[in-house]
Amino acid sequence: MNQEKAVKILHQVPYSTGRRLPEYKLPAGACDCHHHIYDPVHFPYAPEDKRNQPPATVDAYRLLQKRLGTERDVIIQASAYGTDNSCLLDALSTMGRKNTRGIAVCRSDVSEKELEKMAELGVCGLRVNLASPLKINRYEEIIPLSEKIAQFGWHMQFWLKPDDIAELQDMFHRVCCPVVFDHRGHIPQPEGTKHPAFGVISNLLRKGNTWVKLSGLDHDTKVGYPSYIDTVTVGAAFVKAAPERMVWGTDWPHPSSFSAGNPFPDDAWNLDLLRTQAQDENVWHRILVKNPNELYHFAD
User: In angstroms, rounded to a whole number, what is the distance separating the alpha carbons of residues 84 and 197?
Assistant: First the structure.
């Protein structure tokens, strides 16, 4: 096998378009703060799941790490599993606690013993999933859950519709732990930064207890590939408001693209677009290394 063919095979990643490497070499310790693992062969999906995502295993994800050059990662509990975190915990055990963290999904009746077990494997937060058709969490669970996880130093990650973010703005001030909004808070287009949810999140960022994931450029765009200029503009506005509260993730294996029948994003290109949102090398390093170290408790 010649070297050129070997390189092409190495960077041919499932659920990721293209084979090119990112234009910008990542700093040491760079973290992908949002991806999922699906292993229905060993961990069946919840009966209510209708997406039926094909397997996207740890071994497949490691191919993406090689392509992008990331060294750390955060596995987000897939909605297909509901509150059964078995696949997540197995993946954490496989990946190892040194460079991998997890975000679980639980109901408010989760026991401290369960939380302790998950913490030992690298879980450091809970995702409150209010947008999923599976109806995994309820609004009334948010404050009780935040009280339980605060003692572990965890944060609460929200998957919410933007109108719900605006409606619940007072509640976020009562959450007893740090707050994280995934996928730029799903700020819709074409409203963009004019949507009330952008103002709510910006106010929370100024409070200093809130983080935003600059992930999922393809989720809310009306412009689309290759520029994603509408969602990139929202990301850049968040970076300008609070660079010290931004993290980034791939959202691999892009379950929303799969369920909608859309082409999978080019993860290397999306990473290059993060560089344009960061604007300079110091902020780029902060978003990829320093901020994840703080939020996910990685050693410097």
Answer: 30
Q: How many residues does the chain have?
A: 300
Q: What is the amino acid identity at position 227?
A: S
Q: Is residue 7 part of a domain?
A: no
Q: Please state, in angstroms and rounded to a whole number, the distance separating the CA atoms of residues 154 and 168.
A: 21
Number of domains in the chain: 1
**pLDDT tens digit sequence for 98-123:** 999 999 999 989 999 999 999 999 99
Question: Is 20 a member of any domain?
Answer: no
Dump pLDDT digits (tens) for 273-294. 999 999 899 999 999 999 999 9
Q: Choose among 89, 88, 100: nearest CA to 32.
A: 100
Please choose, from the candidates 207, 129, 139, 127, the residue with its C-alpha nearest in 3D space to the C-alpha of residue 173: 207
pLDDT tens, residue by residue, 227-265: 999 999 999 999 999 999 999 999 999 999 998 889 999
Asked whether the beta carbons of 74 and 296 are under 8 A apart, the reply is yes
Considering only residues 295 and 208, tell me which one the structure prediction assigns the higher pLDDT.
295
Residue 131 in domain: yes
**Residue 85 falls inside a structural domain:** yes
Q: Rounded to an integer, what distance in angstroms lies between the CA atom of residue 44 and that of residue 63?
A: 24
Cβ-contact 246, 214 below 8 angstroms: yes
Sorted by sequence, the CB contacts under 8 Å of residue 84 that are 6+ apart come out as 43, 46
